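Q: Convert this sequence to structure tokens.
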Amino acid sequence: MRRYHIMLSVTALALLASSSIAQGFRQIDLDVLQDKMRGAWAGQMIGVSYGAPYEFHYQGSIMEDPIRDWEPGFVDNSIHQDDLYVEMTFLRALEVHGLDITYEQAGQAFADSQYGLWHANYYGRENCRNGIMPPLSGDPFHNAHFDDIDYQIEADFGGIICPGMPLASNRISDVFGHVMNYGDGVYGGMWVAAMYAEAYFESDVETVVRRALLAIPAESTYAMLIQDVLDFHAKEPDDWRACWQMLEDKWGHVDLCPRVEERPSTSTRSSTAGTSPWACSTGMATGRRHWSCPPVAAKTTIVTHRTPQVCSGASWVTKVSPRSTAGASPASPRRSSAIPTTASIASPMSA
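A:
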């Protein structure tokens, strides 16, 4: 584990140095960098293990049941969650192939994995194993789950190793996100990774959310949903239940996961990237302001647990907040239709 931590720190510093040459400098002390990096990993491990028992049990309704008290032993479950173990494959692939990793190299690393997968991840891996490499493995022609939640829940690593550099995190998301996803399925991961990147230098929650939105097309369904949360929060900052209802009414039946359409009584509505992010954004908006305040972080986590569609969505809010404060190329015809170029993404010097 220490070896990987050192590798991640060196990778982050290398990215920061290369960005500094082109963009100027955003400086961060090594001790602070490592502390925030540890906090980011701890946060997502705590979030996903804390919320796991509630996942998929509350669909189309707010969870009003009691939430269990946190116990440190819960975190042992985290490595058994696909949110975490898929990231280990991606990090290992970066260690082997470097930051210029290709689509095919990323796809082969995924094809070689042996753990359980579902939805877009499952079909993306099957495509890679059958010679359909990314970006085609996540393309809607080959993957009916192309805009499911999969990359969004495993994009954390891309932002964690890109402190203050959403351009760099977008490039990583472009490669790994298209292994299994396309369109909103990739944009969700880009947004999450960009929040991590910004959180190294910014502690105000709304600022982080807004800056990360610059990493994805404003006209995408994903960006419009997040903007709806921000707009509602500006008018009703304390009524997260009303915010949830507004989103349920407007977006709850938009772009459902294929399994929902096939088996609506047994499948989850929460697997599509187009309807899931409100749990994350509503929780962060309601928790408010600075992650460094423990009661705020706790409230954010609880609100996110209670706002389906993904009741384990607390992992997204907890893990995006590092402890101390707690470029994609132009699109080709077979990739997400509007991946932002460097001109449209928040610069590393935007703070």
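The mean pLDDT is 77.
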